[in-house]
Every structure is written in C-alpha cells, then in structure tokens.
Amino acid sequence: MKRKSLFLTALFFVFFYGCFVYSFYPLYTEDDLFPNDLLVGEWIDADSAIWKFDFYYRGERLPENRDSTAFVLQMKEKDSTDFHAHQFTVHVIQLDGTYFLDFYLEEYFDDDNFTIFDLHVLPMHTFARLELDEDRAEIRWFAPDWLEEMLKQNPAAIRHENNGNHILITAKTEELQQFFIQYANLEEAFSDGVDAQLRRVGQ
Fold it and tell me: Terminal CA-to-CA distance of the chain, rounded, Å?
C-alpha cells in the first residue's frame, strides 16, 4: 500500500475497508487517561479539510458533564459549510514518553438514511502516533501491511485473527500497550500507513 495523505472524502471509507490496523480492545485503561486540551480547536490538513476536536460530553452539553480526557472529532471538507454527521471519539494517552491516539467511530448511523449496511458495521479501535510541535500536529496510523508481514514472520507476536482479508487484533489493553510501545519508533511500522499533517486554523 502506498503512503496515503488522509483526506475527508476517503476517511470513513478507509476506516471500514482495510487501510488501518484494527483492534477489538482500546489502547487505554481509565488509569491511562488524563485531562488535557492538546487538540481542542480546529485544524486544517494538507487537503484543506477541517478537523474539529471538542471535549466529550456525557449527556447534555453542560460543564458538569464534560469529560476532559476525551475528544469528539468532526470533519468537513474545505468547501462544505457543515461538519460530517459521523464522528470519532478520540483519546490521548502517553506510553513510554510517546503520545498515542485511540480512534473509535462511535457515531456512524444516519438516522435519515438508515440501511441494512449500518447493521453490518462493527466499529473498531485504530491507533496512531501523535507528534505535536506548537501549532502543528502529525498523526500517523500503524500500517496494516507492516503488521501483516510481521505476523507472518512471528504469528505469536500479538493475539489476533486473520480471515485472509483483514487482521483483527484481539489482545487486551495491557498486551496492546506493550506491543505498540515496542514499535513506536520503528519507521517501517508507519511508512506505508495513513497519515495526516495538521496545523491550527489561523496559524
């Protein structure tokens, strides 16, 4: 797979159809989460799509319901006035000095256009490495081709299932963390994966 620059029109398609490393379990426990505003605000990527990170609210949008350890990510294309109805829940964690993002497509149904397709969607977690430099951010997801080749050489490296089309990591959180810490600085683990170069809007 050639390296992909992430743009909005392809985001949800590639999320479901094989351009990420998928996991049944999250990369974090409640103890790993910490209040932060690292990503809050609007960012623009190389294709001029807007990424809007806001705090997650449990229930009504009231101060007492705000969860400062989680973000809601909405996106819109450069010529659009409205953000896409689908949204990710994103958590930031730090493992061994490296920031990671856990993406989970929590809102994906379209109530006005509900189809049998929606009944066949089972959202999974995907993981990316995050690098921040003032008002710029680089998000790099782990590359599925790298994982596939690594597991061919060492099937016991991490618990997983492979149906011939997709690999699903089934390891629980503690094992996941140790695995991704091990490969956090390996260029081959990211070089053919999806990435996004972001800068804060107005900067």
Answer: 32
